[in-house]
Amino acid sequence: MSELAPVKFYAATFLTSAPSIKQCPPDLGSEVAFAGRSNAGKSSAINTLTQQKKLARTSKTPGRTQLINFFTLGDDHLRLVDLPGYGFAKVPLKIKNEWQKNLAKYLEERESLKGLILVSDIRHPMTDFDKMMIDWAEESGMPLHVLLTKSDKLKRGPAKATMLDVTRQLKDFKGEVTVQTFSALKREGLDQLKARLNDWLRYEEAEQVIDYLSEDDE
């Protein structure tokens, strides 16, 4: 069987913004969500991945910061999802609680969601926001990939030590979890991130191909 073509991340375009799971696009195909505390480098990671300077900000006009933002990847059945990134910043408690409820519901109920990329500043990893997202991913049985951004801000030794420390802290995570360092500025770790996303986004399609071939053999 020939390998599936890699996902065309450069073809990413803004699809829509949703205030809750009820307004999300049809729950079909495959999508991967990016979550990260404000200033963790989530927008830079998405823009570097897609080779577009402002993609992650196209849906960030005033009043939209609590929305779940969807981007297609050259195919409506393949999507990246940009989750609200303010974390525990200066946001009214009522809005924060509503955001947490909607986000938890999205992670728990979205069938097309294949994995969660948790974007975390390598200089300040495992914040309260990070731990909350990790707990939600574990409770939802969601595969998790921790992206330790801004690795160019540390020397190679300390960056590796931080990655190993975060990996140790996640050793009891019940499910699939991986950790890597990443620098949007130097584009370091980009191939590793693409490989993880390709695995998740193409996994269901590969299963369908295998099932189809198996039926032919019967």
Shape: globular
- The end-to-end distance, rounded to whole angstroms, is 17 Å
Number of domain units? 1
- Rounded to the nearest angstrom, the radius of gyration is 17 Å
Per DSSP, what share of the residues sits in E-state strands of 2 or more residues? 15-25%
Rounded mean pLDDT is 86
Number of strands: 7
Order of helices and strands: EEHEEHEHEHEH
CATH superfamily: P-loop containing nucleotide triphosphate hydrolases
What are the segments in which pLDDT stays under 50 over at least 5 consecutive residues?
58-64, 206-216
Helix run count: 5
Helicity level, as a percent range? 25-40%
Q: Class, according to the CATH hierarchy?
A: Alpha Beta
CATH architecture descriptor text: 3-Layer(aba) Sandwich
How would you sum up the major sheet? 7 strands, mixed
CATH fold call: Rossmann fold
Structural class: alpha/beta
As laid out across the biggest beta sheet, the strand order is 1-3-4-2-5-6-7
Description:
The chain has 218 residues and is α/β, with parallel strands linked by helices. The chain is built from 5 helices and 7 strands, in the order ββαββαβαβαβα. It has helices spanning 42-50, 93-109, 128-140, 156-169, 190-217, and strands at residues 12-18, 30-36, 68-73, 78-82, 113-121, 144-149, 177-181. A 7-stranded mixed beta sheet has the order 1-3-4-2-5-6-7, with helices on both faces. Strand 3 (68-73) and strand 4 form a beta hairpin. The radius of gyration is 17 Å and the shape is globular. The two termini are 17 Å apart.
